Amino acid sequence: MSSYSIGDLSAQSGVKVPTIRYYEQIGLIAAPARTEGNQRRYGSAELNRLRFIAHARDMGFAMDSLKSMLSLSTRKDAPCAKVDAIVEQHLAEVDQRIKQLTRLRGELAGMLSGGHHGTVGECRVVEVLSDHDHCGYEHGAAA
Amino acid sequence: MSSYSIGDLSAQSGVKVPTIRYYEQIGLIAAPARTEGNQRRYGSAELNRLRFIAHARDMGFAMDSLKSMLSLSTRKDAPCAKVDAIVEQHLAEVDQRIKQLTRLRGELAGMLSGGHHGTVGECRVVEVLSDHDHCGYEHGAAA
DNA sequence: GATAATCCTCCAGTCACTGGAGCTTTTCGT
DNA sequence: ACGAAAAGCTCCAGTGACTGGAGGATTATC
Fold this sequence. Notes:
2 copies of one chain form a homodimer. By secondary structure, chain A is an all-alpha fold. Chain A is built from 7 helices and 2 strands. The first copy, chain A, has a two-stranded antiparallel sheet. The longest helix of chain A has 34 residues, at 80-113. Mean pLDDT of chain A is 78; it is low at 117-121 and 132-143. At the A-B interface, helix 3, helix 4, helix 5 and helix 6 of A face helix 3, helix 4, helix 5 and helix 6 of B. The first copy, chain A, binds a DNA duplex through helix 2.
């Protein structure tokens, strides 16, 4: 049967119990039915929704993004393109991040190959990372 | 001349004024000299340090990681080998992040690959996100 | 029917900022 | 040189996204 306690739901979704309650509090999931003794009881729809949330969050989607994806997902007639757009945007962000990190990787690797001369005084780690021109990264634009 | 007010420093580094004060408070940057009237005055060393912090944070380095890098950079006599070890550690960290993001990238791209069919009802994104088995993504590792 | 496990609510804390209130200092235009 | 405006100061409270504990009620199991 599909009646889960909050603990079951937690185990099935990987979302911690207090976090589930928090999600309910902020309206990310609906308040579920309660037992006589006031305990939450969930169905499989709620489990799916929670899994969706957990997965999307794990993938780094912003809370706002997944909120809008969730609201879209409940309206079966909503255009898929809208959801796709959110994913596309996130994809672009991820691409940007990968680019930055790859660049940083190069910098770090370069520092190592520089060899082992005595002290930090000559190491370029901090130098490279503090010199804006060195990296070509555009600050201010949130990733 | 190299004497910046906190506002100058903010403008030069892209770090907001309250954030600079916060960084001072948690000991990430040293308490700077003050004017007669108790206002902070910074030099270019502090600007570099702040740029380093901003850059490293933008890159997604954990606070602890950049603290350890910074602490090494201030001790000019620190053995280079130690720095190298830390750089290596960060290199591994960066590699790990790149790997994660690349996998995520693939997953996101995969979601979009179905093409743009009509409605959310058939939307692959929603489907993939609610069904864990669909994606083969290993949860638990933050992006 | 006892006892352990789980659940409830409420509240406080975390991290990394961010912003406002109320006041002082500095800078700038005239 | 002076007065307004801009920027600075401290302190404190709030944000987002949880996380965890206290103290007590409810379920599940033996």
